[in-house]
């Protein structure tokens, strides 16, 4: 399927649908001889899996991975690495009543217009279930980046209009919304539950910080590092916007304020978010993404059916009232894939 492969030197192809037999990823370009096992990847899968808290979907997918190829005696072989996850808790019958209607906010209408056919069972390829394969592939890239002393950390900074006021990396994995402010996290959880009780949903903002990347990564002019990260993030179905460093606030700043001046110790500020001219500066790469409210809600909405008739629709099923908590590991995974790919592209450049 066109559009299902990402990357140049580290290439990832995902496959599978939400209510199909399985989802998975094929990762090509993996450095040979790297120690890797299923348990390492499973740590990241457990962070993304459904049913992990009171503010996520109750769908019970344990996301136990199987590595089918590319691994021998605990080390990568350099050949394509195939990772598969069986779907075990599918309920396609939940969509029988609305299979002829287009759900607002979903890709039902656009997929049918593009392909002339669509999988109405939980959105098929357009489902958030596809991101499980990304997290598995991203874990492989994370392992490669560990050898480069690169760290990738994402966390929630806003949900439902409630913003974090402090930053404590130690609390991110200790609260169910993965927020960097424990006090704000409590208010976020309360807000999500209030909306869920009404059958509604909310969105938020997730920030990602990549540390340890040296100056010099990025491929101008069309494959700028920030452009590649932006493409990776916007390929996630729930993400509707991205900004780096000062981001949209730069529009209100003066050049003398926004420019990252330098002294003998390096950059004095990081308004650029660690990327200038599409190339990493050596400072932390910092970006934020806007995560839309979950489209599947039980509030009655207006739509049309496949015959063009106006209808009222209520989406039933098991859905996250807020996507932010489970999209955090997906964002990290995509960031890992981009950074490792550009390390390999830089190495190829220097070998010429």
UniProtKB/TrEMBL annotation:
GO terms for molecular function: chorismate synthase activity; FMN binding. Pathway: Metabolic intermediate biosynthesis; chorismate biosynthesis; chorismate from D-erythrose 4-phosphate and phosphoenolpyruvate: step 7/7. PROSITE patterns: CHORISMATE_SYNTHASE_2 (PS00788), CHORISMATE_SYNTHASE_3 (PS00789). Keywords: Amino-acid biosynthesis, Aromatic amino acid biosynthesis, FAD, Flavoprotein, FMN, Lyase, NADP. It catalyses: 5-O-(1-carboxyvinyl)-3-phosphoshikimate = chorismate + phosphate. It is an enzyme of class 4 (lyase). The keyword DNA-binding does not apply. NADP(+) binds at residue 48. Its cofactor is FMNH2. Its EC number is 4.2.3.5. This reaction introduces a second double bond into the aromatic ring system. This is Chorismate synthase. It comes from Paenibacillus sonchi.
